[in-house]
Amino acid sequence: MADKIDALETFWNFDRAAAAIPADAGMMESPDRDSDLLKRFRGGDREAFTVLYRVHQAAVFRFAMLMTGDENKAADVTQDVFIWLIHHAANFDPARGQLGAFLAGVTRKFLQRRRGEELRWAPLDESLLVAKEDGRDREDEGNQASDAESLRRAIVALPGKYREVVVRCDLEEKSYEDAAIVIGCAVGTVRSRLHRARALLARKLAKQAAERKAERCRV
Question: Distance between alpha carbon 190 and the CA centroid of its chain, in Å?
Fold first, then answer.
């Protein structure tokens, strides 16, 4: 078992190692299969862990990417999650839910830890961050890609508790119940936070649109 972990850690510590095994979109989550793969992995089967990674990596990365808005940070968090799973595979209890939800909770904790470290070393007012991002290059603001980027920036700028429900419910299309399980709150809390988040996003996007219109008029 020790040799197995040493070999896996060596693999995962390579820069961009996450890209070495592409996610397989055709491999749907299966609770029975995941439990069997984890059991095999704990027994020394490295290939079982590789299969688990291929099934779940894309969802972990997507969640981290949507929460941070930064591909490099998302890749780092994704790697952290699966290294953690190597050492804590026994923590997963299939009786309490699916592995995907379990990994979402682990990802959430790593994101919170990273956010705490960033605030510790370089505290920033999120409103200043938004102002900085709003001033970036707007050459293609009128096209669809620019609108998507504006929405992405607006979501990333939301306070964490609101950003998370938007990512879970609106972008990943999870149910309120599934989101509540991962976040660890009541379904009603998810609903109220989502309502507030959508209102904040609507105001911010309206402000961005007004600013773009004013800029075009000046030109």
Answer: 17
Q: How far apart are CA 18 and CA 159, in angstroms?
A: 28
Please tell me whether the overall predicted TM-score, pTM, comes out greater than 0.90 for this model: no
Token representation of residue 95? 């009786």
CATH number 1.10.1740.10 is the correct assignment for the domain at 2-120? yes
Dihedral sign from CA coordinates of 158, 160, 161, 167: positive
Give me the CATH code for the 125-218 domain, please.
1.10.10.10
**Residue 60 near residue 89 (C-beta atoms within 8 A):** no
DSSP secondary structure of 142-159: TSHHHHHHHHHHHHHHS-
pLDDT in tens, 85-108: 999 998 988 888 889 989 999 999
For residue range 193-217, what is the model confidence (pLDDT) as tens digits?
999 999 888 888 888 777 777 777 7
